User: Fold PTS system trehalose-specific EIIBC component from Peribacillus psychrosaccharolyticus.
Amino acid sequence: MSKYQEPAKELLEAIGGSENISVVTHCATRMRFVLKDPAKADVEQIERIKLVKGTFTQGGQFQVIIGNEVSSFYNEFIKMAGVSDTSKEDAKIAAKQNMNLLQKIIAHLADIFTPLIPALVVGGLILGFRNVIGDIKLLEDGTKTLVDVSQFWSGVHAFLWLIGEAIFHFLPVGITWAVARKMGASQILGIILGITLVSPQLLNAYAVAGTEEIPFWDFGFATVDMIGYQAQVIPAILAGLVFSFLELKLRKVVPNSVSMIVVPFLSLVPTVLLAHVVLGPIGWMAGSWVSDIVYSGLTSAFGWLFAAIFGFVYAPLVITGLHHMTNAIDLQLMSELGGTNLWPMIALSNIAQGSAVMAMIYINRKDEEEKQVSIPAAISCYLGVTEPAMFGINLKYGYPFLAAMIGSLVAAVISVGSGVMANSIGVGGIPGILSIQSSYLVVFALAMVVAIVIPFILTIVFAKTKIGKMSFKKSKTEAA
Assistant:
């Protein structure tokens, strides 16, 4: 008998049976359910199952954390439940039936930016490495960089910009593709739309401020500025949405016999014109407005307060799914300022959660069963994946989660107070230091130490107080 058979049976019973499952799928660590009646799921009974590390509801989906064994467990579960294997896209579509308007907006943003994250992480690491070899003066008594003294490293520095430019300057191509993919429009036309926003024919967005005469298209009765939208987020989103709307509407009214010719032409050409006449300028202004507000808030006299609030509440935002909105803000800050001072706080929050788990490993060092959950969760958290740590350990006991939030608060204040900037979104944990701009590496390392030490100490202190003892008794009672 498979070791997953009994826990699968228990989960099926606690979830409300096969008849309560609308859709089920899984990701790297979690089972994702769309339930016909979420109230029928017995959360307390589910969390008593030995294999389960925790549960939460997000984006209209009831999610059960299993860990790295989720794939094998999922196969056993669907066989026992008598439900078919379902794609993640089907699960998302079904889940939206249980969402309110705000949740739907956040889900759409997540669907647009999530496919772009691997490229952004790679780009951040590349820019960070280029800063290390090209900006930090490590040689000849601190007067020269590796690039200054080595033709090899100079070549590496120049070559890596090929990738960095492709990721960041041509980001609108990825965004318009992701929007078209999300909306069900033609993805290749989405890519072409993005290229028209960053074409070499256009004046580079970064050169606009220093150019006296901007080139333009002359239509006789009107002119249109030939300005590119390199690295711009909002213009690309707006263009992608308008294109997708036009194409999907045209498909419904244009006869199939001429659809192949008429629909692409009537959806792409008007969108490109609108993008350069209306959507681009409006999106640029909106993006500048958003980035100015965030940057001004973080660099003002009350920047420490903004940092403290963000550092404290970021982990709870992850639970709600609202953290997906920070991706768009980070990208806008990068395009306007050449970096982001928001993302370093996110990395520090993740590190703090992992450190609280490390403290729980120390506290429960004699509990072999607990270590099977907590050790992989801590490693995962330090590498940027926080769910196993938060739901499997920190929220289970309560006080480690609070300790991590406090540690994140202090680390965020240090980061923002010192003006720390990241080149890009990176690996959201300890490796995140590779994405930090070279002049801030030392102070960010200090903030990392704070994010490690404070949650560790506070978790141990809380464990010995009434709060810790109450949380410990509660968890033991629920597990009984």
Remarks:
- The longest helix spans residues 256-299.
